[in-house]
Predict the structure.
Amino acid sequence: MNLIKLPLIFLTLFLLSTIVSADNHDKEKKLVNEVKKITEELDSLNEELPLNDPFAGQSSNNNSVNSSMSIPEDQLLDEMSLYNFKLVGLIAGEKNSYISMMKSNGEPYSLTIGQYLGKIKLVDLRLNEAIFENEDKKFIIIDFNNQIREADEY
């Protein structure tokens, strides 16, 4: 009696497994067909993308912000020129003060007072601007609007 039950159990399990796998195969085919339809609909839309990134805000090229100023060509070509950076943060403390800047390619830089950024030296900071001194003992001031101006004194 047990010898007859054992093959019947195996046969039943085999039939159930084939039915279940066939059912899963049908679901898989339906899912693949739906994905194909969706991709075809997306391809048919062919929307043109805007020329500028609407989520970028004002983080466009630094040179366009300063286009009203006459920027020396050597400054534009210099990778560590202040014109290639944007001021993004100021931290002032009793002992140390820092600024955080973002390069035009997105790379962050942090400077403390007395450090050099290329040929200019960070000498002071105010609530909304950082003050650098160049080799000619003139001061270059950058603010959060990325406005860069030169001054004889600050």
Notes: The CA atoms of residues 67 and 87 lie 17 Å apart. The two ends are 104 Å apart (CA to CA). The chain has two domains: 1-47, 62-151. The domain at 62-151 is CATH 2.30.30 (SH3 type barrels.).
